[in-house]
Recover the amino acids of this structure.
């Protein structure tokens, strides 16, 4: 296969592009370039992708946003969406080393409750998420201190900033000392599971989870406290019950991570690479899927004008 010229844009930092590039290089000879790329892989943190009119556009996002197939040819998202050959389910956690870790070991590795010297942690920067996670923080804080090591609701020294360096490794080392982790998503949508749950499992804590109502299609909901099926009061009661019973904690934390003890192939790096193989193996002219004619052309023109107006307003 010839060298594949790819641009990356509209990501919040280098973490995702670096991870995607590393993954692609396992199978493909890629050249990262902004000069006349054949493909552009982009996210939602900007509008630079729109300038690549002659590139096959691949939307790759970990946020709770659905793809606009009028603008992209293919999309990798958290969604269970089926749309011909144009969509592939790839929640953001598949790019994390911690996901590979829990896939490899399947169970937590805790020999003694003594390894968990602290109660519960809460690590967030974003203060605009669903109010349930702040409510959970305050309700649990009425029982014992919940250590908030992020910028939001911070009450102890902060750990490293997200998406900078090997930030997730530092986060895991911090979480390993805790029995529980508040692992609530920013919002809720079927399939929208992020690294929050994976990090908590990798740190061998019990996640207190809210977000994806279908999280049980992949993960073992008996391994964590699932607010999708409990009220806030019931969840707090369950935390207190487990916290006061070391044998119960050890029993729960020893349960398998995945539903039916099966790591899903569909979320493996091999499956993701197979999808890219499908995209890249076509002649470029055959790989386009978006509509270039009539309403497709009108739609893209309209979006370009909206983006231009947005940029002018922000510049002023």
């Amino acid at each position: 296969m010839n060298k594949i010229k790819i641009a990356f844009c509209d990501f919040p930092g280098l973490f995702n592009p670096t991870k995607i590039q590393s993954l692609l290089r396992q199978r493909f000879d890629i050249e990262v370039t902004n000069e006349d790329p054949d493909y552009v892989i982009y996210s939602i943190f900007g509008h630079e992708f729109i300038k690549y009119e002659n590139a096959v556009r691949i939307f790759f996002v970990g946020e709770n946003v659905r793809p606009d197939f009028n603008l992209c040819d293919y999309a990798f998202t958290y969604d269970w969406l089926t749309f011909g050959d144009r969509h592939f389910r790839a929640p953001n956690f598949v790019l994390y080393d911690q996901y590979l870790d829990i896939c490899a070991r399947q169970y937590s590795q805790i020999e003694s409750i003594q390894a968990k010297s602290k109660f519960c942690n809460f690590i967030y920067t974003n203060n605009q998420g669903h109010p349930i996670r702040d409510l959970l923080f305050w309700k649990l804080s009425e029982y014992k201190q919940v250590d908030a090591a992020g910028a939001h609701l911070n009450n102890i020294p902060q750990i490293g900033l997200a998406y900078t360096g090997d930030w997730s490794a530092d986060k895991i080392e911090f979480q390993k000392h805790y029995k529980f982790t508040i692992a609530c998503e920013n919002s809720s949508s079927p399939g929208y599971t992020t690294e929050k749950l994976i990090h908590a499992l990798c740190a061998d804590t019990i996640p207190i989870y809210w977000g994806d109502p279908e999280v049980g299609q992949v993960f073992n909901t008996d391994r964590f406290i699932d607010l999708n099926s409990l009220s806030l009061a019931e969840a707090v009661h369950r935390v207190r019950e487990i916290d006061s019973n070391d044998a119960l904690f050890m029993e729960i934390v020893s349960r398998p991570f995945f539903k039916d003890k099966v790591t899903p192939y569909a979320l493996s790096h091999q499956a993701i690479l197979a999808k890219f193989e499908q995209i890249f193996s076509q002649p470029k002219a055959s790989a386009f899927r978006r509509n270039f004619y009539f309403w497709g052309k009108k739609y893209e023109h309209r979006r370009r004008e909206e983006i231009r107006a947005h940029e002018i307003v922000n510049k002023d």
About this structure: The chain is about 35% helix and 15% strand. The two ends are 47 Å apart (CA to CA). The CA atoms of residues 141 and 147 lie 9 Å apart.
